[in-house]
């Protein structure tokens, strides 16, 4: 499929105009899913280029994708990136007819630190009762600032001296913010009534354990949470950023999973929590 990618443009109509990049599939349906995408970079780095691989795959799965250049820490610590992303999400919903179609369903998606922000957006949209979300797509999400899981240790990472630890420190700014559910969604005590989730990780992913724990917690709270663990080696989450490799073995699997998730959630009430099929 041919993907049409716009040049970087400014998302006007928000308090602080933000840079975005829009991806459309050549055969996108009239009421294509509309996705706000957040790139990775451990909260303190990353650009729109780092979101190119996942944005392209989402567009190839039939979506119109708006990838957001959100403000980075440590210059903009929590909650700046989240609040900016929420304003962008509201803008997408209000302007969905121009971007995709009036009947288009709204999704959030992100990898690594972008997965954190995407999951927090789902919480925020629920609490604000707007905008209605059809789903959240989380790839190798950073959800736990403790960095004490087995998969983190297997990656020779941890709470000190790794890029994710440095990223968390820059994002949170102070330790007390780690208790905020929007900053560290895995620690949230209220995970009910969220949009259905697709949680994707890999056998060699340092974020594997926290990703699966989050999916399990969503299940326990009555939220539809599909999860897939891709076979190693993937090089996730690092391989998800930069120019990436659209010929990597996991690329076709992701494209298919995105398309299936869009199809499964296409006719569900936004933010409903009836169960979807679970694929281990």
TrEMBL record:
Keywords in alphabetical order: Hydrolase
Family matches, as PANTHER family: AB HYDROLASE SUPERFAMILY PROTEIN C4A8.06C (PTHR48081), ALPHA_BETA HYDROLASE FOLD-3 DOMAIN-CONTAINING PROTEIN-RELATED (PTHR48081:SF8)
Key word rRNA processing present: no
Species this protein is from: Phreatobacter stygius
Alpha/beta hydrolase fold-3 domain boundaries: 35-226
UniProt lineage: Bacteria, Pseudomonadati, Pseudomonadota, Alphaproteobacteria, Hyphomicrobiales
InterPro entries hit by this protein: AB_hydrolase_3, AB_hydrolase_fold, GDXG_lipolytic_enzyme
Name the UniProt record assigns to this protein: Alpha/beta hydrolase
Pfam hit, one: Abhydrolase_3
GO MF assignments: hydrolase activity
């Amino acid at each position: 499929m041919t993907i049409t990618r716009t040049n970087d443009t400014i998302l006007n109509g928000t308090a602080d105009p933000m840079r975005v990049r829009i991806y459309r599939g050549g055969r996108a349906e009239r009421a294509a899913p509309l996705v706000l995408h957040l790139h990775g970079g451990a909260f303190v780095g990353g650009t729109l280029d780092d979101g190119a691989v996942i944005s392209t795959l989402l567009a190839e799965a039939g979506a119109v994708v708006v990838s957001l250049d959100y403000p980075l820490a440590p210059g903009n610590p929590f909650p700046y990136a989240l609040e900016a992303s929420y304003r962008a999400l509201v803008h997408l919903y209000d302007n969905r007819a121009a971007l995709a179609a009036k009947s288009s369903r709204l999704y959030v998606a992100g990898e690594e630190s972008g997965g954190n922000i995407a999951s927090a957006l789902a919480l925020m949209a629920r609490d604000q009762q707007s905008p209605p979300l059809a789903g959240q797509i989380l790839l190798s999400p950073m959800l736990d600032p403790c960095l004490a899981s087995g998969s983190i240790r297997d990656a020779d990472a941890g709470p000190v001296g790794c890029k994710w630890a440095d990223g968390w420190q820059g994002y949170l700014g102070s330790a007390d913010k780690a208790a905020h559910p929007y900053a560290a969604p895995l620690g949230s005590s209220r995970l009910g009534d969220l949009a259905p989730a697709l949680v994707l990780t890999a056998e060699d992913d340092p974020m594997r354990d926290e990703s699966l724990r989050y999916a399990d917690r969503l299940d326990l709270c009555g939220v539809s949470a599909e999860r897939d663990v891709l076979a190693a080696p993937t090089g996730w989450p690092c391989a998800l950023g930069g120019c990436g490799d659209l010929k990597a073995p996991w690329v076709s699997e992701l494209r298919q999973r995105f398309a299936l998730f869009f199809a499964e959630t296409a006719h569900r009430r936004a933010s409903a929590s009836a169960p979807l099929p679970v694929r281990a």
